[in-house]
């Protein structure tokens, strides 16, 4: 695999307290696998590698107004948001978790749908930075990671999914999503990304 950091963005999906944290509204769904797969630490290391190589790090986060008046409930997972009152703008658990706190130069994109491109600034952000390769990590593999990755493919981006930097509610859900994405994206490991970035640096 080859990567040009200048045209590559790591897109970190929904690394928010309500999604990946032990006290979040979705903890019963996702927290066990986040811990078992050590996803947060792996994403942190991956993000540092991308930054150090001169690439772009983008965090997508989902959040609604404090009264949830902009929440359109058209799926069961968004019904959970309505019932629990989670992911409200300004609430601590709606923010990116502390180990992954965005750094100078990173981009944070907020949206209200499962996929990160819908009614958000994500595409404009990527286009303005000359990004052609999108590298995905985050939670949950079979919801917003896959949803956003599929949109990226439809929009013409090269799509890379970092298998060991993603997780879902169960290992089976994760594996099924990765298999489903296999014809739309390059499925790689953190080690693959490290090797590609090292090779790019040696040829710079």
TrEMBL record:
One of its GO terms (molecular function) is hydrolase activity. Keywords: Hydrolase. Residues 8-189 form the Isochorismatase-like domain. It comes from the Bacteria. Pfam families: Isochorismatase. The keyword Hydrolase applies. PANTHER family: ISOCHORISMATASE-LIKE DOMAIN-CONTAINING PROTEIN, PEROXYUREIDOACRYLATE/UREIDOACRYLATE AMIDOHYDROLASE-RELATED. This is Cysteine hydrolase. It comes from Rhodococcoides trifolii.
């Amino acid at each position: 695999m080859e990567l040009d950091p200048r045209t590559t963005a790591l897109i970190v999906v929904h690394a928010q307290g309500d999604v990946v944290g032990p006290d979040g509204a979705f903890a019963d769904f996702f927290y066990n696998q986040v811990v078992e797969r050590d996803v947060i630490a792996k994403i942190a290391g991956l993000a540092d590698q991308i930054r150090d190589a001169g690439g772009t790090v983008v965090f997508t986060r989902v959040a609604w107004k404090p009264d949830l008046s902009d929440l359109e409930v058209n799926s069961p997972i968004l019904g959970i948001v309505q019932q629990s009152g989670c992911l409200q703008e300004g609430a601590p658990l709606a923010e990116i978790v502390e180990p992954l706190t965005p750094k100078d130069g990173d981009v944070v994109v907020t949206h209200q749908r499962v996929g990160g491109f819908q009614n958000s600034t994500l595409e404009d952000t990527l286009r303005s930075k000359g990004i052609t390769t999108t590298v995905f990590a985050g939670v949950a593999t079979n919801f917003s990671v896959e949803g956003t990755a599929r949109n990226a493919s439809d929009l013409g981006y090269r799509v890379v999914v970092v298998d060991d930097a993603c997780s879902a509610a169960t290992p089976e859900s994760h594996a099924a999503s990765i298999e489903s994405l296999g014809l739309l994206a390059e499925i790689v490991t953190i080690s693959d990304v490290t090797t590609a970035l090292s090779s790019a640096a040696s040829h710079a």
